[in-house]
Design a protein that fits this description.
The protein has 209 residues and is of the alpha/beta class. Helices cover 29% and strands 16% of the residues. Strands 3-2-1-4-5-7-6 form a seven-stranded mixed sheet, with helices on both faces. Strand 1, helix 1 and strand 2 form a beta-alpha-beta unit. The two termini are 17 Å apart.
Amino acid sequence: MKGDKEPMRVLVACEYSGVVRDAFLRAGHYARSCDLLPSDSKVDGDHYQGDVQDILDDDWDLMIAHPPCTHLAVSGAKFFAQKKASGVQDQALDFVRSLLYAKIPKIALENPISVISSQIRKPDQIVQPWWFGHMEQKSTCLWLKNLPPLVKTNDVQAEMMKLPRREREKMFFMAPSVNRAKLRSRTYQGLADAMAEQWGVVDKSFCLV
């Protein structure tokens, strides 16, 4: 594994946007995104279009994973019985386990409030976009391995709370469209930058799990 100040090999799993990958590239690391979809990023970076399982064992130092939440998020709880009966929820949970328990020294897995908490384990941290300069509310859970919790970089909660609810919860109130799922899954830039800045150089003696 690389030393504290050496460039790391970073895998960003289940990311089409390149937001997190490009943040780590700017921080001086080698980063590769992976998704079943092609990358939307305009940056000339490395993207593997395919199953992340194909490259999971390629000697990574850090993985940031964004597994699909379609069958896991509690926002869709009214469909849980159907999803459980069909097996799609169990398949989604198995995929999460394959990422969480991958043989990679440092791992961060993100998802909204979901059944991961009850079926696998509770998250190590829940962050909000307003921690990182975005005047929006959207709970994001983080399951961490050998990484410290993120700290706020630009707390704008006070200003955000002056906005109407529909503005500060844009993702929740987003109108249906062909791109809705992609837009809602996109990582906030401030959160991506915090990941790269705070996890790009960490104390190697720190061990959370």
